[in-house]
């Protein structure tokens, strides 16, 4: 029964991997074509490219790690390979989360219409604000990598001191528990920022709708549609983000209590975030949505 469930989870992981690579690769391809043709890209398209690249890297890292743990777990004792694997996961996961959060901030600054002087100051300098936030997140990445490196060194040191030690996945679970707990804690900050952006977008939409009631424009107003489209993107991001954070937390608990099947289920759910959110970004972006429909029409015509 356990081997059957492992096979099912593996097939789901591979399907999520393919969907994620196709959607993220499509975002990179379309924006790169526009970059070459127009010799320039908007700020949001630049964010989307880097976000898509980071998620492609994250998906590859997750897939490789999945098969290593299942079929070659002894390789995890190699200090260099282990460090590269965990650092790669940390870096790609960091940019995957923070760039999606920055995208939420970008929509907030571009669409919302608050009259607060501080907000207007940030709104007029949105590109600089986004750049400064991105550079600021490198501090979190640096601290995260330091903590992960400490966990790796402590685990390897205990392994080297124990001369009678034979590798087993239960031994590796001690390192995995520490790493996953650290990753979960560092994921809370971008989630909080994205959630605040979501609340401010809702408040801005509510204020705007109050103004529109006086002129009877309602839903047909372009700014209202912009608010609603941005909210759809941010809501989908937050829902997937919540599922990702919960899967990380539950995966950590499953490591603590050594529930292997629950851990695999949590990892499968966690991969759904980087693979499916980019697909939703394509549907929410007019340029990418039109390009995807054109591709789909051409493929269907050839059939």
3D shape: globular
Radius of gyration: 22 Å
Number of strands: 0
Q: What's the number of helices?
A: 9
What structural category characterises the helix and strand content? mainly alpha
How confident overall, as mean pLDDT?
A: 82
What is the straight-line distance between the termini?
A: 41 Å
Please give the largest β-sheet: none
Low-confidence blocks of residues: none
Question: What fraction strand?
Answer: under 5%
SSE topology string:
HHHHHHHHH
Indicate the percent of residues in helices. Answer: over 70%
Report on this model:
The structure is a single chain. The chain is mainly alpha-helical. Helices cover 88% and strands 0% of the residues. The chain is built from 9 helices and no strands. It has helices at residues 2-38, 43-71, 79-111, 117-124, 126-161, 169-215, 222-256, 260-284, 286-302. Helix 1 packs parallel to helix 8 (260-284) and helix 7 (222-256) runs antiparallel to helix 8 (260-284). It starts with a helix and ends with a helix. The model has no long low-confidence stretch (mean pLDDT 82).
Break the fold down into its secondary structure elements and pairings.
Layout: H1 2-38, H2 43-71, H3 79-111, H4 117-124, H5 126-161, H6 169-215, H7 222-256, H8 260-284, H9 286-302
Question: TL;DR of this structure?
Answer:
88% of the residues lie in helices and 0% in strands. It has 303 residues and is mostly helical. Helix 2 (43-71) packs antiparallel against helix 3 and helix 7 runs antiparallel to helix 8.
